[in-house]
Amino acid sequence: MRQSKNFLDKTFKYSERGSSLKTEIIGGVTTFLTMAYIVLVNPSILADAGMDKTALITVTIIASAIGTLIFAFMANAPFALAPGMGLNAFFTYSLVIGEGISWQQALGVVFISGCVFLILALAGLREAIANAIPKSLGLAAASGIGLFLSFVGLQGMGVVVADPATLVGLGEFTPTVVIALLTLALMAILEYKKVKGGILISIVITTVISILFGLVQLPSSIISAPPSIAPVAFKLDIIGALKFSLIGPIFSFMFVDLFDSLAVLIGCCKSIGMEDKNGKIKGMGKMLYADVASTMIGAVLGTSTVTTYAESASGIAAGARTGLSSIVTAGLFILTLIFTPLLSIVPSYAASAALVMVGVFMFTNIKNIDFHDIKIAVPAFITILFMPLTYSISTGLCFGFISYIMMHIVAKETKKISPALWVIGLLCVMNLFIG
User: Fold this and answer.
1) Both ends of the chain: CA-CA distance in Å?
2) Which residue ranges run through the membrane (predicted)?
């Protein structure tokens, strides 16, 4: 036992980072509990794109486990990966439903965005692109995606419905709507009480209540072999995604993945002292390579962009400091494969409530935007507003970038517009008015 501990310590260096085997295990379990809801929510969202929901459960688990393991061994850092919230909604509601393309082409878009991300990294342009993105627009994008997710979630709950006079209106208080609202309330209470895995616990309780009221039927067996991934795996259409009209979505996937990953990695790594004397994060390159590799593998398997999860911060708060905790998280994901019959009965309105709660977390980014500066306020507001109202994350981003450049031209502050940002602005104009 001691030899195995020494081997693990030599491999992951947890003692050197002030951790222990027990702490790494606890950290890995904590991270899993806070993000396990994705196994239930991601299939519900992507199923609306016409994909096989049961196959998606297996794919979500496998993609999350693979991405997390890649990160563990490549970067030796305490982070977990899974299909990103917001990006999966973008995949389904903006691309497949909004643009009218097939889900196979949408997977191709995800794969290409990963390739572009990789090329930029290899060419040394990744940092230039990241630095070219104004912080205010990055924060606005996160807030806008949160609002968009909440809007989609409220629709799935049945709380918001179509209205011919006002476009949207309040739905009827049917049993499922009432249960969905109670689920959202429970999630909020558990989050306030800082209960680990509050979203997952709420979904489980809702599923049990739905079973008791006959709204959901129990499966014939609790444990079984996982559903085949054949209906969605290796179905991506890369050639079909190589369209000029899809440049905007490809860029949007890459931008959101890059900015989200950087925000999570920088924030968490600084909190555990993983930075050098110059303030740069140690191993950041390896971390981003692990992230983009996971995205490309995820697209091949049949899911939207796999990215680094902010919920990893919960494991870090519990003491995780190395990739060993990520291995624990990945192992727990793999363990859930045999319980897929139970996962498949989760009602969609429960998963939709989770979307609203995740939207709350993302929308809190708005507090860091300087709305006193009109040059910042207008582009940020437009970005946030346009995402849910146009039902398109990429459209919101495009109008946000264009308005940011316009406001700084008017203010005669063009020096603040980098060459990379000018290129981004041009691509946005082409996407909106030509694509």
Assistant:
1) 61
2) 21-42, 54-72, 103-125, 137-161, 173-192, 199-218, 238-267, 288-310, 316-339, 346-364, 376-405, 417-434
Place of tokens 């859930």: 336
CA distance 286 to 203: 35
The predicted model scores a pTM of 0.81
Q: What is the DSSP string of 35-50?
A: HTTHHHHHHHHHHTTT
pLDDT at 128: 67
Per-residue model confidence as pLDDT tens digits over 209-242? 999 999 988 887 888 889 999 999 999 999 999 9
Residues 6+ apart with CB under 8 A from 411: 375
Report the alpha-carbon distance of residue 49 to residue 279 in Å, rounded. 43
Determine the Cα–Cα distance for residues 336 and 343; give it in Å rounded to an integer.
Answer: 9
Instruction: For residues 303 and 301, give the distance between their C-alpha atoms in angstroms, rounded to a whole number.
Output: 6
Tell me the DSSP string of 144-206: HHHHHHHHHHHHHHTSEEEETTTEEEEPP--HHHHHHHHHHHHHHHHHHTT-TTHHHHHHHHH
Query: Both tokens of residue 80?
Result: 């977990």
Q: Residue 304 carries which side chain, given as an amino acid letter?
A: S
Cα separation of 387 and 145, whole Å? 7
Q: Count CA atoms closer than 13 A to 28's CA, side-chain side.
A: 24
- Reported as half-sphere exposure (CB side, CA atoms, 13 A), residue 337 has a value of 18
Half-sphere exposure of 249 (CA within 13 A, CB side): 32
Burial class (CB in 10 A: 0-12, 13-18, 19+), 396: buried
Amino acid at the residue 122: L
Closest CA to 260 of 252, 272, 248: 252
Residue 330 dihedral angles phi and psi, to the nearest 5°: -60, -40
Residue-level pLDDT at 131: 67
For the chain, list residues with pLDDT below 70: 1-5, 124, 126-131, 263, 267, 277-279, 434-435
**215/226 Cα distance (integer angstroms):** 24
3-class DSSP state for residue 83?
strand
Cα–Cα nearest to 95, from 45, 40, 54, 38: 45
Q: What is the DSSP letter of 245?
A: G
pLDDT in tens, 76-114: 999 999 999 889 988 999 899 988 999 999 999 999 999
Q: What are phi and psi of 160, to 5 degrees?
A: -110, 130
Pairwise CA distance, residues 254 & 90, whole Å: 12
Sorted by where each begins, the domain ranges of the chain are 18-363
